[in-house]
Amino acid sequence: MSDKPQNDDFNELDADMAQANAEHGLDADPSDALAPLDAVIAERDEWKDRALRVAAEMENLKRRSEAQQNDARAYAIQRFAKDLLGVADNLERALMAAPKDAEGATAGLVTGLEMTQKALLQAFETNGLKRVAPEAGEAFNPHLHQAMIEQPSDTVPGGAVIQTMQSGFELFGRTIRPAMVVVAAKGSGAQPSNPYGGGGGGGEPQTHAFDGKA
Fold first, then answer.
1. Which residues pair with 149 in a beta bridge?
2. Would the pTM of this model clear 0.70, i.e. be above it?
3. Residue 70: is it exposed, middle or buried by C-beta count within 10 angstroms (0-12/13-18/19+)?
4. What is the arrangement of strands in the sheet containing 168-171, beginning at the earlier edge strand?
5. Residues 131, 115: Cα–Cα separation, whole Å
6. Which of 50, 162, 176, 205 could share a disulfide with 152, CB 3.0–4.6 Å?
7. Nearest CA to 74 among 178, 171, 185?
8. Is residue 191 pLDDT above 70, yes or no?
9. Contact indicator for 131, 169 with CB cutoff of 8 Å
């Protein structure tokens, strides 16, 4: 008996099953079914990257806009601010020359000068103009200070400010006028006491001009 009819039946059955699987998508490659999902994920990542770049560009634009506004404002009031620095200097000189133990009308005058100076400096600061007057011991800042004299000091370390000769001012972070200061010479600072007495070097300390740009 030949097996051919039986084989034909099996082949026909396989063909029918293959057709049914094809109709229902059961014989499709699994990767083909995930292809749409991969496309959606890729598109999502692309839009996320675009959003991050736009956010970064907006932040940079905001910073540039703020810087331009500050520059425009500083340019607008810079000349006027410089003209007012002379008024602030005169008030400071008057207060330095005023007697510390003044009484009566003189005391009232000194108080009035102090209040005027305070109001003027407050108006300066409100408009971005800040006074620069380093205290003794503060580090010398070449961007804000101008060294006029260098001299030895027993209390201030070398390179630090000993005294402010004239206040400086900065406008929105830009130096309008550097503070003129006296700077401690190299090797300055508290020196150990000599148990045998004697100054070691003798004579008066030497004072000389100092180039703040060096």
1. 182, 209
2. no
3. middle
4. 129-132, 168-171, 174-177
5. 16
6. 205
7. 171
8. no
9. yes
In the block, tokens 């079914």 appear at 33
- Distance in angstroms between the alpha carbons of the first and the last residue of the chain: 115
Number of helices (H), then strands (E), belonging to the chain: the values are 3, 7
- Whether the per-residue pLDDT at 91 is higher than 70: the answer is yes
Strand runs labelled E in the chain: 129-132, 145-151, 161-166, 168-171, 174-177, 179-184, 208-209
Amino acid at 10: F
Let me know if 112 is exposed, middle or buried by CB neighbors in 10 A (0-12, 13-18, 19+).
exposed
d(CA 89, CA 87): 5
Task: Tell me what the pLDDT averaged over the chain comes to.
Answer: 79
Residue 170 forms beta bridges with which residues?
Answer: 130, 175
pLDDT tens track for 116-164: 999 998 988 888 888 899 999 999 999 999 999 999 998 889 889 999 9
Distance CA 150, CA 167 (A): 17
d(CA 93, CA 136): 19
Q: Phi first, then psi: give them for residue 30, nearest 5 degrees.
A: -60, -30
